[in-house]
């Protein structure tokens, strides 16, 4: 195989890793601060994609449509997440982990069918916006512009998260809550708002991931089930609650899966699970320290 | 030594209750034995599915309810059991009976491999590793076209003529379920079972009485895998086909919900949960295509208001009633 | 019976146990004392294998047990109670003791014998000895704090240890309950000749029951010997006992 194929596949994997990162960063934030493993995170991602589809349908396929959808869909998902947190999750923070997990799983089932009711069970697809079509030639590699765009967005999100967590008062409170449970009591009433905010932020990230992936895939039922397992594995492998761990393992998974297509095309699908399994076996507590 | 009066009385009451329970269960089994004469073919098929699923859920509960392990991917062993029969019968010349005997051991072997790595981790990490490795097995089954038929699975598996009638598969699944439950019950009530529940309550303490906790958890995991494998064989008898969805992770979630619904702290709860869910999905399916929505709502209500499950709730009520009598 | 030799343990840069030395002679009650954070519980966890030491030796009956997992150490004959209540909360009191007996007799991998037929007489004996028989059929978590603590010691003893470790056996107990524990320790030591190693905050209790004392300060052994000698030791007085006595 020539270098060009390898390099393009590598870059595509990296861009896929960026999507993984955006989604799993939300999941790991929620885990770190709320200590809840949210199965419904995949559903929020799916909602992000479907809402982006509908938004573009309304706004028209023009240039502005895509960018506005990218703005609206994640925000709408964040609002949905907020409703979930205030309406349900806050009643089960003290319950055992398995119960929390099952509660969020009930949302997976509910959202799955709601999406089917609203959008039907056919595939939907969105065109890549005009400005982002075509492809780049970079060294000898060939990279679709949309993937290059994702390669840009990923680090931007990471930077934004870094700024939020390390440079804002609220972010510092989030980190403190994640690192030290007693902070929850110290903060008292305020901690409920931190929980709500983090869950909404997590939802926003899931929605953003869904909206970003929308033009490159078939928007369909079942996209929640796949991403949530990937995201969970990424989060656990990266170290629960650790955003940078999630970044590293997202890129490993994305690149691993993408290169797998080159080397073992038939079995590429097993690679993310294999990588996660092996990493968990050799580093049971995650690549980076859990919960910051 | 003071074995006080009230304790003795309480013990007698417990014995009396367990006698009543035992008679009721024997009655139930007898009822199931004569039931087929009153059932339509579809109802027979449904009952056989319930028996199979009940075995699957009970086997998970050994690890989940008694072992306290967050096992998130039990359907893998069910699927491996079913695929083992399918593959052995279609790719080799082995007769059904031989394949059916090998299959649970194949499931137990996979359980040993997954469990070997998983029991080294605790809590959520344990759960995630079972999920990762389980999905790995799914992905292999999904893609290995030559062996497993890939996405399509394997169909028209030549199950012996004697077993193909609905009556025969009803009785076979019933008998295998009853025997398996007896064995699993004996295990739960054995010294091993007691130690397993002790470890569920308190791992460090269990280590400190001289028990290698991981070894016992692994043993429970393998036993659970074995019985899930038996359930997989039964599935073949009923359906005569396999598909990768049998071991996708949401199948495991469904089995978890069955355990929760019936009561993870009880022995028969998972069977009850299996029966209710299979029946509900059938009944609801008649009226709407949104069965999963209904299931989600049921699960939501269970988690919020009945986390101990139906049998857990009933037996809790019975216990507190008998305690009141003693006091 | 037990000798701890130059044992060290650090947690992420914090030297919890820097240089611990300890000799526990057969048949005696030995106490480890020291201010909060001196490393007493860490030392106990190192001895019972719940933590792995960074260096040093832990010799039990002339055999190095450092690095063995907890269950192996228990099976060599070291039983322990924990500082915080550490019992099987959801099992009955009866089952709590039975589990320990099953473990002691190596029947934990027995799958088909009904557990309810095993060791019943011995369980009743133990429950009677510790005054827990009335609660036998009750879930262990429903007992009073003091009774749970007694159950914890009963579990440890049910494994028939040669050496019993008690980590703050009277922490959080009423004076009445504390007196019971003191009597229990004396009975075990005097009547049954059991070797006991304990940590304790209550100095009165320590000087009442201990025949040897080791003083741990900032992870180091700063004195070890007979109670009188330790009481007189200048280093100990300045480091710790000064304010306590």
Characterization of the model:
The complex is a heterotrimer of chains A (292), B (327) and C (245). Chain A has 292 residues and is an all-alpha fold. Chain A has eleven helices and two strands, in the order H-H-H-H-E-E-H-H-H-H-H-H-H. Chain A has helices at 3-34, 41-59, 63-87, 97-119, 145-167, 169-179, 182-187, 189-213, 223-238, 243-263, 271-282, and strands at residues 135-138, 141-144. Chain A has a two-stranded antiparallel sheet with strand order 1-2. In chain A, strand 1 and strand 2 (141-144) form a beta hairpin. In chain A, helix 10 (243-263) packs across helix 11. The longest helix of chain A is centred in the N-terminal third of the chain and has 32 residues, at 3-34. By secondary structure, chain B is mainly alpha-helical. Chain B has a single domain, classed as ABC transporter involved in vitamin B12 uptake, BtuC (Orthogonal Bundle). Chain B has 15 helices and no strands. Chain B has helices at residues 5-34, 41-66, 75-91, 96-118, 123-143, 145-148, 161-164, 166-188, 191-201, 203-208, 213-239, 249-262, 269-287, 291-305, 309-326. In chain B, helix 4 (96-118) packs antiparallel against helix 11 (213-239). Chain B is globular and about 60 Å long. Chain B starts with a helix and ends with a helix. Mean pLDDT of chain B is 90; it is low at 1-7. Chain C is of the alpha/beta class and 245 residues long. Chain C has two domains: 1-77 and 163-245, P-loop containing nucleotide triphosphate hydrolases (Rossmann fold, 3-Layer(aba) Sandwich); 86-160, no CATH class. Chain C has nine helices and ten strands. Chain C has helices spanning 40-47, 70-76, 93-104, 120-129, 145-158, 175-191, 203-209, 227-232, 234-244, and strands at residues 2-11, 14-24, 29-33, 55-60, 63-64, 78-81, 163-167, 195-199, 212-217, 220-225. In chain C, strands 6-7-8-3-9-10 form a six-stranded mixed beta sheet, with helices on both faces. In chain C, strands 2-1-4-5 form a four-stranded antiparallel beta sheet, covered by helices on one side. In chain C, 45% of the residues are buried. The mean pLDDT of chain C is 87. Classes of the chains: A mainly alpha (292), B mainly alpha (327), C alpha/beta (245). Chains in contact: A-B, B-C. The interface between B and C is large, with 35 and 47 residues.
């Amino acid at each position: 195989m020539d270098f060009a194929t390898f390099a393009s596949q590598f870059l595509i994997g990296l861009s896929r890793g960026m999507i993984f990162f955006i989604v799993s960063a939300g999941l790991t934030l929620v885990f770190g601060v709320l200590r809840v493993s949210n199965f419904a995170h995949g559903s929020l991602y799916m909602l992000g994609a479907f809402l982006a589809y509908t938004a573009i349908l309304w706004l028209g396929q023009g240039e502005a449509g895509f960018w506005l959808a990218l703005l609206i869909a994640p925000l709408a998902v964040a609002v949905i997440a907020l409703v979930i947190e205030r309406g349900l999750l806050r009643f089960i923070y003290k319950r055992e982990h398995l119960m929390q997990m099952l509660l969020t799983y009930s949302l997976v089932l509910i959202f799955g069918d709601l999406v089917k009711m609203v959008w039907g069970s056919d595939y939907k697809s969105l065109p890549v916006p005009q400005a982002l079509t075509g492809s780049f030639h970079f060294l000898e590699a060939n990279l679709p512009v949309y993937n290059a765009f994702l390669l840009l967005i990923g680090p931007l999100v990471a930077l934004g998260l870094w700024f939020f967590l390390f440079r804002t008062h609220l972010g510092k409170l989030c980190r403190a809550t994640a690192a030290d449970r007693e902070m929850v009591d110290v903060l008292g009433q305020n901690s409920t708002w931190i929980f709500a905010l983090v869950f909404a932020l997590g939802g926003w990230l899931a929605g953003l991931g869904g909206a970003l992936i929308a033009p490159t895939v078939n928007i369909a039922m079942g996209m929640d089930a796949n991403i949530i397992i990937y995201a969970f594995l990424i989060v656990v492998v990266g170290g629960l609650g650790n955003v940078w761990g999630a970044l590293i393992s997202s890129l490993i998974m994305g690149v691993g899966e993408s290169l797998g297509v080159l080397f073992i095309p038939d079995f590429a699908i097993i690679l993310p699970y294999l990588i996660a399994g092996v990493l968990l076996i050799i580093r049971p507590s995650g690549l980076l320290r859990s919960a910051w | 030594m003071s074995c006080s009066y009230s304790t003795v009385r309480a013990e007698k009451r417990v014995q009396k209750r367990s006698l009543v329970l035992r008679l009721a269960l024997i009655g139930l089994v007898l009822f199931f034995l004569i039931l087929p004469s009153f059932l339509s073919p579809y109802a027979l098929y449904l009952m056989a599915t319930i028996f199979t699923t009940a075995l699957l859920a009970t086997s998970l509960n050994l690890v989940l309810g008694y072992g306290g392990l967050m096992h998130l991917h039990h359907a893998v062993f069910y699927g491996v059991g079913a695929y083992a029969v399918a593959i052995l019968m279609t790719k080799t010349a082995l007769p059904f009976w031989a394949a059916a005997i090998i299959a649970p051991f194949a499931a137990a072997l996979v359980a040993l491999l997954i469990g070997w790595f998983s029991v080294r981790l605790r809590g959520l990490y344990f759960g995630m590793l079972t999920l990762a490795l389980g999905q790995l097995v799914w992905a292999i089954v999904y893609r290995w076209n030559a062996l497993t038929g890939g996405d399509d699975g394997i169909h028209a598996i030549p199950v012996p003529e004697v077993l193909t009638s609905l009556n025969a598969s009803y009785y076979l699944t019933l008998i295998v379920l009853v025997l398996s439950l007896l064995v699993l019950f004996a295990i739960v009530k054995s010294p091993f079972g007691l130690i397993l529940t002790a470890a569920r309550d308190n791992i460090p303490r269990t280590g400190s009485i001289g028990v290698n906790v991981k070894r016992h958890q692994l043993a429970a995991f393998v036993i659970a895998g074995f019985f899930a494998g038996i359930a997989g064989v039964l599935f073949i008898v009923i359906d005569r086909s396999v598909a990768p969805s049998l071991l996708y992770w949401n199948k495991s979630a469904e089995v978890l919900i069955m355990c929760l619904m019936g009561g993870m702290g009880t022995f028969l709860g998972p069977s009850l949960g299996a029966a209710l869910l299979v029946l509900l999905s059938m009944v609801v399916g008649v009226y709407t295509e949104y069965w999963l929505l209904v299931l989600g709502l049921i699960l939501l209500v269970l988690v919020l208001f009945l986390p101990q499950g139906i049998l857990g709730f009933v037996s809790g009520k019975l216990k507190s009633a008998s305690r009141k009598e003693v006091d | 019976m037990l000798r701890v030799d130059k044992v060290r343990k650090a947690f992420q840069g914090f030297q919890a146990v820097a240089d611990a030395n300890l000799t526990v002679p057969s048949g005696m009650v030995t106490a480890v004392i020291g201010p909060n954070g001196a490393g007493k519980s860490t030392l106990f966890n190192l001895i019972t294998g719940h933590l792995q030491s960074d260096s040093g030796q832990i010799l039990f009956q002339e055999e190095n047990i450092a690095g063995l997992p907890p269950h192996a150490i228990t099976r060599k004959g070291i039983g322990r109670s924990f500082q915080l209540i550490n019992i099987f909360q959801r099992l009955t009191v009866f089952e709590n003791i039975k589990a320990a007996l099953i473990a002691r007799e190596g029947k934990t991998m027995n799958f088909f014998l009904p557990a309810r037929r095993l060791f019943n007489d011995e369980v009743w004996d133990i429950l009677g000895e510790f005054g827990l028989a009335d609660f036998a059929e009750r879930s262990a978590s429903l007992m009073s704090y003091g009774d749970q603590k007694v159950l914890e010691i009963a579990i440890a003893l049910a494994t028939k240890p040669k050496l019993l470790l008690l980590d703050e056996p009277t922490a959080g107990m009423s004076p009445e309950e504390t007196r019971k524990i003191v009597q229990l320790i004396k009975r075990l030591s005097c009547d049954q000749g059991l070797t006991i190693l304990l940590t304790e905050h209550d100095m009165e209790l320590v000087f009442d029951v201990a025949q040897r004392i080791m003083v741990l300060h900032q992870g180091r052994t700063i004195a070890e010997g007979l109670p009188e000698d330790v009481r007189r030791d200048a280093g100990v007085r300045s480091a710790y006992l000064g304010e306590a006595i």
